[in-house]
Write a structure and sequence with these properties.
The chain has helices at about 5-40, 55-65, 75-90, 120-140, 145-175, 180-185, 200-210, 225, 235-260, 270-305, 315-345; strands at about 100-105, 105-110. The protein has one domain. The protein is mainly alpha-helical. The chain has 11 helices and 2 strands. The protein has a two-stranded antiparallel sheet with strand order 1-2.
């Protein structure tokens, strides 16, 4: 194996991991600022100019706090839970194409860690694994509130994964591929999949809110009923891992939605920009465009949190099984019929 290829991928993994942590860290700051803006407040304004150092202060606090493990907890699983949640949150970025290949001389550098031909299945596999971090943490705490929260989270994730999977099936009927890179390349310019699958996108984003435990589907962390959710007994950086994992999941979900439905790094006029900017700058502009789309989705996640009240659990299950599921099935059937008619004529 070429050693330069290994170094290239190692550097790309390190950069993506660092960016994921940085975005997760400053998402906590953005969350407070967005909430403050919507509620006509200032938000953090003490640590640094405009409170810019508040995430650093929060991280230092997490590191310095005393770490407490409950007496009757399963200590090994108690430590595995937050680590697994963080791991599954980070590995989802491996198949996302962050930009078109950069050409430096005769060297072509891919801005994707790996392009597997079943990238969509990989994403769903990672999403399915993420519930184990929550379940293990809730069960290992030996706390009834944590366990109830973990059961809620598991049933919520399982329920909404079905509708999410069906919305993706309709998209795959249109794109005819499971590779995220090929899906992005098919959306060159303005040919974004959201124009062909608007219902599928709405279903996907609603399910993404439920999968990331964001409001109005934040029942697993419901303070009024479950004290603090599945991480009630956690402190120090174990709690920090769970909180970081939630924000990284939000970042990855935004990246996946941008990739599947909004063209990824594609934008109108990119061919002209490529001729003017050259083979190095043009792909980086595409990467900036992709991150702009991601940040727009992250803002939407935060906007919804401070706008819509939390659902009751029966409302959550009713929406997942009796509203989203039939809509997703109908979307798949209608998409199949339209494609069959178009191919025939």
């Amino acid at each position: 194996m070429d050693i330069t290829f290994v170094i290239e991928k190692f550097v790309l993994v390190a950069v993506i991991f660092g960016i994921s942590l940085l975005i997760a860290m400053y998402s906590t700051y953005a969350e407070r600022k967005v909430a403050a803006f919507l509620q006509d407040r200032l938000g953090p304004d003490r640590a640094g100019p405009a409170g810019m150092f508040q995430p650093l202060a929060d991280g230092l606090k997490m590191f310095m706090k005393e770490e407490i493990i409950p007496t009757h907890a399963n200590k090994w699983l108690f430590m595995v839970g937050p680590g697994l949640a963080m791991l599954t949150a980070c590995i989802g970025t491996a198949v996302i194409p962050w930009g078109s290949p950069v050409t430096i001389g005769s060297k072509v550098i891919s801005l994707q860690v790996t392009d597997i031909n079943v990238g969509v299945l990989y994403i769903f596999g990672v999403v399915s694994l993420s519930v184990y971090g929550v379940m293990i943490g809730g069960w290992a705490s030996n706390n009834k509130y944590s366990l109830l929260s973990a059961i809620r989270a598991a049933s919520q994730n399982i329920s909404y994964e079905v509708a999410m999977g069906l919305s993706i099936i309709a998209l795959l009927l249109v794109t005819n591929t499971l590779s995220l890179k090929e899906i992005v390349e098919q959306q060159h310019g303005w040919h974004w999949n959201v124009l062909y699958q608007p219902v599928g996108f709405i279903l996907f984003i609603v399910c993404a809110f439920a999968e990331t435990n964001r409001a109005p589907f934040d029942l697993p962390e419901c303070e009024t009923e479950l004290i603090g959710g599945y991480h009630t007994e956690y402190s120090s950086m174990k709690l920090g891992f769970y909180l970081f994992a939630e924000y990284i999941n939000m970042f990855v979900s935004s990246a996946v939605m941008s990739t599947l439905y909004f063209g990824g790094y594609n934008y109108p006029g990119m061919d002209y920009v490529a001729t003017v900017a050259g083979p190095v700058i043009a792909p980086l502009i595409g990467t900036v465009v992709l991150f702009a789309k991601i940040f727009a989705f992250i803002f939407f996640f935060m906007w919804v949190r401070w706008t819509i009240p939390r659902f009751r659990y029966d409302q959550l299950m009713h929406l997942g099984w009796k509203v989203l599921m039939p809509l997703a099935i109908a979307n798949v059937i209608i998409t199949g019929i339209v494609i069959a008619i178009v191919e025939k004529f």
